[in-house]
């Protein structure tokens, strides 16, 4: 019985990894390529931050850090250790983001 449960867990993990790989690939295709960074977000798992070659950005949440690492490795994108200045400078922000950030600063 334990072997069956382990196989089910492994298959479930593989499906989650495969879904994230597809989502990363879709993002990369839409943005002329992509780079990413994985950040641990506690019990909720890990956040995969994606930055496209065109400056577009987005993120995905994986249930565990290990699943996120597997997904970015299988997707073939460049993975950064941190969201440092050079990597962050690739993000293009538009009017929506600036308005949203201003709203946060003034309590909105």
Describe this structure in words.
This protein is 51% helix and 21% strand. The protein has 4 helices and 4 strands, in the order αβββαβαα. It has helices at residues 2-30, 65-75, 85-88, 95-105, and strands spanning 34-40, 46-52, 57-62, 78-80. The chain has a 4-stranded mixed beta sheet with strand order 3-2-1-4, with helices on one face. The mean pLDDT is 87.
Give a brief rundown of this model:
The chain is an alpha+beta fold. It has helices spanning 2-30, 65-75, 85-88, 95-105, and strands spanning 34-40, 46-52, 57-62, 78-80.
Keywords, separated by commas or semicolons:
108 residues, alpha+beta, 4 helices, 4 strands, elongated
Radius of gyration of CA atoms, rounded to a whole number: 16 Å
Helix/strand-derived class? alpha+beta
Going across the major beta sheet, what is the strand order? 3-2-1-4
**Biggest sheet, in brief?**
4 strands, mixed
Shape: elongated
Give the secondary structure arrangement, pairings included.
Blueprint: H1 2-30, E1 34-40, E2 46-52, E3 57-62, H2 65-75, E4 78-80, H3 85-88, H4 95-105
Parallel strand pairs: 1-4
Antiparallel strand pairs: 1-2, 2-3
Helix pairs in contact: 1-2
């Amino acid at each position: 019985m334990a072997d069956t449960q382990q196989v089910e867990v492994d298959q479930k993990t593989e499906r989650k990894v495969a879904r994230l790989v597809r989502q990363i690939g879709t993002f990369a295709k839409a943005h002329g390529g992509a780079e990413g960074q994985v950040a641990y977000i506690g019990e909720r798992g890990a956040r995969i931050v994606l930055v496209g070659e065109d400056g577009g950005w987005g993120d995905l949440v994986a249930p565990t850090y290990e699943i996120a690492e597997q997904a970015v490795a299988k997707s073939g994108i460049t993975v950064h250790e941190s969201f440092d200045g050079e990597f962050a400078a690739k993000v293009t922000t538009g009017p929506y983001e600036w308005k949203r950030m201003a709203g946060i600063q003034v309590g909105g």
